[in-house]
Design a protein that fits this description.
The chain is of the alpha+beta class. The protein contains 9 helices and 11 strands.
Length: 259
């Protein structure tokens, strides 16, 4: 019996260093997965090329979930995020949510990845809501026949009542799904009239355009170039593109966060 116990103890002593080494390796990997796993740009392109035609890898970093790489890539002028597992067998496309903070981590990274160069957007044709001298400018791409644009329009007026340092610069961007929006947009641009925009959102009759202008067509081309396909769309002072409706308090919070 003593010999058996002795043999067991000797065996345990022999394998303990192995487990200690394994545990330390896992701990080290948890702290710096880049040392344990590597993925080059060429490797990422090879993984994505069958799923995404003409893909160009912009950045590779450990993902928000252990065991995944996050790949920022561009294809056909559009930037997107992909996740690849460390075994390099699976590509994951979708949103990663942090349940504790209730944050869409993928969306935050996507917005940061798709920042717009605000200096490229001409504002001479924009309709200004608020003080033109306001330091914080939000650019809004809007459609006069878009219901959510009308709701956002009302919220922008609430914002400027609370904050004199914020102004909205509205660019007319009629969608093809709204047949009458193009002519209304031209009429509003010709008059450069906030009152006409108000009328359009209130479903009042908007007169025909009183000028010939290419501004609306230019806005449509610009929207396509910077990745805007729907309305309303907001570009924050730091260039972050925010799609969809936001209420006044959310807008103020976003401006303060992104200025």
């Amino acid at each position: 019996m003593r010999k058996f116990v002795l043999i067991v103890l000797i065996s345990l002593l022999a394998v303990i260093p192995f487990f200690v080494h394994a545990a330390l390796s896992v701990e080290r990997c948890d702290h710096d997965c880049m040392k344990c796993h590597q993925l080059s740009n060429n490797g990422a392109v090879n993984l994505l090329k069958d799923a995404v035609a003409g893909v160009k890898v912009l950045e590779i970093k450990p993902g928000p979930v252990k065991g995944l790489w996050e790949i920022a890539a561009e294809a056909n002028g559009r930037k997107a995020l992909y996740y690849v597992d460390f075994s390099k067998k699976f590509i994951v496309v979708g949103n990663v949510f942090d349940l504790k903070t209730k944050t869409n981590l993928t969306q935050e990274r996507f917005l940061a990845l798709n920042k717009v160069d605000v200096s490229l957007i001409p504002l001479d044709d924009a309709i200004v809501i608020g003080d033109k001298q306001a330091k914080k400018r939000i650019i809004v791409f809007t459609d006069p026949d878009c219901p959510y644009c009308a709701r956002l329009h009302a919220e922008t007026k609430k914002v400027i009542e609370k904050r004199k340092d914020i102004a909205f610069y509205v660019k007319m961007f009629p969608l093809k799904m709204h047949p009458g929006a193009y002519e209304k947009s031209k009429a509003i641009v010709c008059e450069k009239s906030l009152a006409l925009l108000d009328d359009a959102f209130e479903k009042k009759k908007v007169p025909k355009p009183k000028c010939e202008t290419s501004v609306v067509d230019d806005n449509i081309k610009l929207a396509e170039k910077i990745g805007i396909s729907g309305t309303p769309a907001l570009i924050m002072p730091n260039g972050t593109l925010i799609p969809g409706y936001k209420d006044a308090d959310s807008l103020i919070s976003l401006v303060d966060k992104m200025s």
